[in-house]
Amino acid sequence: METVDILKYIIGLVSVIIIVAILLQSPKGGLGNAFGGGGGGEFYRSKRGLEKTLFNSTILFGVVFSLIALAIAILNA
Q1: CA-to-CA distance for 5 and 20, rounded, in angstroms?
Q2: CA 53 → CA 10, 17, 59, distances in Å?
Q3: Rounded distance, CA 40 to CA 17, Å?
Q4: Residue 52: is its pLDDT beyond 60?
């Protein structure tokens, strides 16, 4: 198995992780409202705990996805 083939499997796994992470992020109120913890009113609040970790990991996996895609493109050239 070549390096490009391994990278293709890894990029597929990373893309599934990104999709799940994005779907867990609710557009209104974040992770708390997604699981029934809505506080009611609309007000600004910062991301905390698991919600912040999920947000930061989504960014991290996006960067990893981009780097792997770039590596695949370079190795196929």
Answers
A1: 23
A2: 22, 14, 10
A3: 30
A4: yes
**Which of 57, 74, 66 is CA-nearest to residue 10?**
66
**Which distant-in-sequence residues (6+ apart) come within 8 Å of 22 by Cβ?**
58
Is residue 35 pLDDT above 80, yes or no? no
Asked which of 2-11, 33-42, 47-56 is least confident by mean pLDDT, the reply is 33-42
Rounded CA gap, 75 and 54, in Å?
31
Q: Where are the domains of the chain?
A: 3-76
Confidence band of 36 (pLDDT split at 50, 70, 90): low
Instruction: Mention every residue, 6+ apart, whose C-beta is less than 8 A from residue 51.
Output: 25, 30, 31, 32
Q: What is the pTM of this model?
A: 0.74
